[in-house]
Amino acid sequence: MVYIIISIVILLILVYVFYIGIKTAIYVRRIANEKDKPPAFAPPSPKKVIRHRFKGSLFETAITCLENEVEKDYALKSIIEKLPLFLKADSWSFLLTPNNDEWRFLFWSKNLDFLPLEEVAKEIQISGEHIKRVFNTKKILFIKDTKNNTLWNQKHSLSKSWLGMPIMVKNEIIGVLNVDWFKEVKVSKFEKELINYFLEDIDRILKTIFSLNELFLSSDLDILTQVYNRKALEKYISQHKSDSSKKAVIFLDFDNFKQINDNFGHTVGDQALKLLTKRIQNSIKSDDLIFRYGGDEFVIIINEIRENNSIDIIIQRIKSTVKTPITINDILIISSISVGYCLVPQEAPDIEKAIEIADKKMYLQKEIH
C-alpha cells in the first residue's frame, strides 16, 4: 500500500513537472527570436538559459542606473563587476587602457585598496605582457599558474590564477577587466564560452544603453572628473594657434594629494578629486574651460581677460573653494593647490607657450610651500 502511494505521488510530481516544462517551453517559444526559435517542446540549452539570465541581470542593472541617474563610471562598474561575481573571484580590477595616454585603474574590489595602484598601472603599461596580450588580441586570456607563466611579471600581486578580459565598445578596446584568484583554479571550456557570450552582451548594453562609445572613444571628457581631457586640450591648442584674443592660462596642482590616496585609499581619493574639480568648475564662468592635464594637475583657460588683477581674483576664489573641507565616508579632507598663470598675448604668444610658463610658475610656488 505504501509503495502504491509513493508511486502515485511520484507520478503526480512527474506530471506536474512535465506540465510546467511544456508551459515554460511555450512561453520561451513566444519570446524567442525567429532565427533561433526552439522546437515546440525542446528544453532550451543550458548556455542559452544562463546567457539570457545574465543579460537580464545586466539590463536590470542598466535600467536601475538610468532611473537613479548615477554617474557613468559607476554604471560601468555596476555592469562589469557582474563577471567577477559570476566567476567567484577573490579580487578584480578594471584597467583603463587608452591608446595615447597613461593607463590607470578606474575601479577595483575593496581588498586591493592597499596596493599602490598608480604605480602598478605604470608598470603594467611598460612591461605587463599579460595585459598587452589581451589588449593586442582583443581576446580573453587565462593564466592558471601565474608563478610559472612567462607572461606574468607583475609585482604587488597575490594572484595564483588570473583571467584578463577585454571590455569592448564598437570593436574598440576601452580597458581590461582583471579577475584574480588567490589559489590556483581552473576555468572550463564551458565557462570560457559563457564569458565570451557575456562580453558580447556587455558590449551591446554599453553602447546602446549608455552610449559609452562616445564617452571613451570619441569624447573629449575625462572619465573620472567629467571635465575636458588632455586630448581635448591638444585639440584646443591646435585650433587656437592664431587666436590673438586676451586670455589667461592657469596651471594648478593639488598639494600632497598622494597622501589622501595613501591614507584613505584610491576610492576616497577619486571621490575627493571629483568633488574638488566640480568646485573649481563652479568658480569660473561657463565659457571658461577646464582640462585635466594628468593625475591631479589641471589647466584652466580664462577667456576675455580685460584687467590683469582680475586673474588674481579668480585664483583666490578657486583657492578658497578648494580649501573648504569636504567629508567622504566620515573622513574629513582638507586640500590646497599650488597655482601658476600666464597671460596671452602679454607674456606668451600662444596657449602652448603659456601652459609651459604657467607650469613653471606653479612649481616655483610649490617649492615655496
TrEMBL record:
Which PROSITE patterns does the UniProt entry name for this protein?
Answer: GGDEF
Q: What is the lineage of its organism?
A: Bacteria, Thermotogati, Thermotogota, Thermotogae, Petrotogales
Ranges for the GGDEF domain?
245-369
Q: Which CDD domains match?
A: GGDEF
Q: What is this protein called?
A: Diguanylate cyclase
Spell out the InterPro entries in the cross-references. Answer: DGC-Regulatory_Protein (IPR052163), GAF (IPR003018), GAF-like_dom_sf (IPR029016), GGDEF_dom (IPR000160), Nucleotide_cyclase (IPR029787), Rev_trsase/Diguanyl_cyclase (IPR043128)
Q: Which residues cross the membrane?
A: 6-28
Q: Which SMART domains match?
A: GGDEF
Which Gene3D superfamilies does the annotation name? 3.30.450.40, 3.30.70.270
UniProt KW Membrane keyword: yes
Taxonomy, superkingdom:
Bacteria
- UniProt keyword list: Membrane, Transmembrane, Transmembrane helix
